[in-house]
Design brief:
By secondary structure, the protein is α/β, with parallel strands linked by helices. The chain is 22% helix and 25% strand.
């Protein structure tokens, strides 16, 4: 399955009327946060495929915010603390960055992120019983600690995500948040059985159901 993953910056290569011709084989859009709802709606509308997303630390309530206050594209499903099955792929999401100030965007301490993971546990156990595995893809905004992250608190990764990968072994963890300038910074790292990918600002992935 061809998946378009996006985060953090509007990609001019995608934001044009011909995107449906260039991306005709895309079957799903995954957003890792900090993108305008209008941009995400444009992609979902032009490509005519489902959109799953999580909010980033700079996201704010949009024109039609859900009860939790995070921005909501009209054509998307907020995956924060949720699990879905799409064409045989098991996908889940965790929004936000490390807590670094009192800004109203989604920010969390390690303990708070641990609580968010705990709320996924019943669904993960159900996936294991029904499908023989917990998860195929976890989409997050922030990265795991020590993988693609930076030294400042805002861009530090979560140790909680390392523990998540140790226990639940998703095939992929897709994140944004860390902007990549130039070709030297790593954007794909193997951790245990999980491939961690920084999708900033866009990435085409071939991921197939098991």
């Amino acid at each position: 399955m061809k998946i378009l993953a996006v985060s953090d910056r509007v990609d001019a290569r995608l934001y044009h009327p011909a995107v449906h011709k260039n991306m005709a084989d895309v079957a799903l859009i995954l957003s890792c946060g900090d993108l305008p709802p209008g941009y995400l709606d444009f992609l979902a509308t032009m490509l005519r495929v489902p959109l799953f997303y999580v909010a980033g630390n700079h996201d704010r309530p949009g024109e039609a915010p859900p009860p939790d206050g995070s921005p909501q594209p009209d054509n998307g499903l907020n995956l924060d603390e949720r699990l879905v099955s799409y064409q045989g792929l098991l996908i889940g999401g965790l929004a936000g960055s490390m807590r670094y100030n009192r800004d109203p965007g989604p920010q969390y301490t390690e303990r708070e992120m641990g609580r968010k993971v705990a709320r996924l546990l019943p669904g993960l156990l159900w996936n294991r019983l029904r499908h023989g595995r917990y998860l195929d893809i976890l989409i997050t905004h922030a990265s795991p600690r020590g993988i693609h992250d930076q030294s400042d608190l805002c861009h530090a990764g979560f140790k909680t995500f390392l523990q998540f990968m140790d226990r639940f072994e998703p095939r992929y963890l897709l994140h944004g948040h860390v902007h990549v300038y130039g070709h030297g910074a790593p954007t794909e790292t193997r951790y245990g059985r999980t491939t961690v990918i920084n999708v900033y600002p866009s990435r085409l992935l071939d991921i197939f159901p098991l």
